[in-house]
Predict the 3D structure of the following.
Amino acid sequence: MSYLVFARKYRPQTFEQVVGQKPVVKTLQNSLKRGRVAHAILFSGVRGVGKTTLARLMAKSLNCLEGPTAVPCNKCRSCSEISAGSALDLLEIDGASNRGIQEVRELRDKIKFMPTSARYKIVIIDEVHMLTNEAFNALLKTLEEPPAHVYFMFATTELHKIPVTILSRCQRFELRRVSSEELSRHFRQLAEKEEVEIGKTALSLIVREADGSVRDGLSLLDQVLSYADSPVDDTAVVEVLGLVRREVVLGIAGALLAGDRAKALTMLAEAFDFGMDVKRFITDLLECFRILLLIKIGNCEQLMQQSDDDTDILRALAQAHPVESIHQKLNLLMQTADDLRYSFQPRLTLETSFLSIIATGDVIGVETLLSKLDTALGTLPEQPLEQKTASSPPSEPAQVESEAETAKEKKTAATPADQTQPESPPPKPTFTLEPAGHSEDKDDNIETQHHPRRDVRKDWLDFIAFLKGEKEWMAQSLQQTVSIKEENKELLLEFDDPSDCFVLRSKENRQILTEYVLDFFQQDLSIRIISPDNSNGRGVQNSEEPKRRRQQLANHQVVRMAEEIFNGRVGDIRISEPNK
């Protein structure tokens, strides 16, 4: 007898042997026990997850001598013939090669006759989505009201291609990809039956390449066991499947994150000399960065499909870099994967992409950057307050202001008295205290001094100087204004470049600026920001070309100041709407 490959040798013969489809199996078994089997059943899912296998198991259960039963005996004549593929009452049709209306007409003629030896006629159409629209239409009536002795079983990998009129006449079961744990456990059991020892890392590579398909995994396992002797290690799997060695992928990932150009290009050359498949290599590298991102996010262990050794290495690598940097490099690698699909020079494409990825460096989020900037500015020492001397002759009482008023006057840089406008509201009074030893007639020694009302246009530079002591980044932004005007209880600030007022435009920052304006000018003015992309000035930002916006933000004075303070550079800029 010729050799049977694992995919045929270990095809499930009972429902209990089906891997990874417990909900579907339980539903089918219960329908058999309770006599509620639908006359048309449709199995859908990716390749190699058990669609045709379940259809054959249903045929066995329906026609078993002890049935219909949820547990076919696999001993009676009907079960044996179905297992051997020689059952006359089981019509198994390939939808790709029998897709026309004529084949469907012939099928309808065949199912009119009673079964020859079994209890029911079972029709299995594999890849049913390949039938033409005419063939589907010819099947409609028969599928809706088939003869009592006929059951239809359909299998497809592309459910969306089947007409809705067919779907509505079938009971549908969607088979999922088999998890890595279930595949690993199943393949290890088969290796033990074959009396072959296989390493954990080697088995992990086979499971990863199977991508949730039992049949694909069995074919790979069969190939590996034909190549290597027991015990099978990961080196044998890498060689027989043409994979890039895991340490090369991890080394390139580390070099891209650390910015080591020479190491990244050298290890890439080593991978090319090995004769790697470029598509598989970039897939492995993307998966490596995906695991790094999951590790950095945390609590995502169930999403990883790595061996313990690889996970430890990746965990140590992830700790040394921020999540924003890993995320950005992953996005650039995904773009590289798209470029490779149309590249005539894949090696050159990878090399230039690696250099671009390394040039980005580590990325720091804008929110983190501004927070660090505020913290750094807050630690700077304040200028010592100068002692204010009395301007009156010695015989007059010395004019002494409170400590809080003195600090505020130093920050706001008050203007001369000749700028007073009579129509302005009265300013807050300042009290003078007489020197010690002159306690009599205290009320006569209190005099009221009126500060002049500050003008928005004339005192704007003084306001900027005052604001530098409170929020320097906001003062830097306001220096870019091209027009300042007070109108109807509004302070109109006009900017030529939208990027100059992008951060200032948010609701929170406008509220902070309003409080500083009230503190300095003693006027309750609402802030209105006007820029070329913001005609109404209410902080609503219209859409703009992303590339131009990013360039404007990269040249923003706050960002440049942050670059100097932290000795860094801007990598990626994400455009988002300010808080309303």
In short: The chain is about 45% helix and 10% strand.
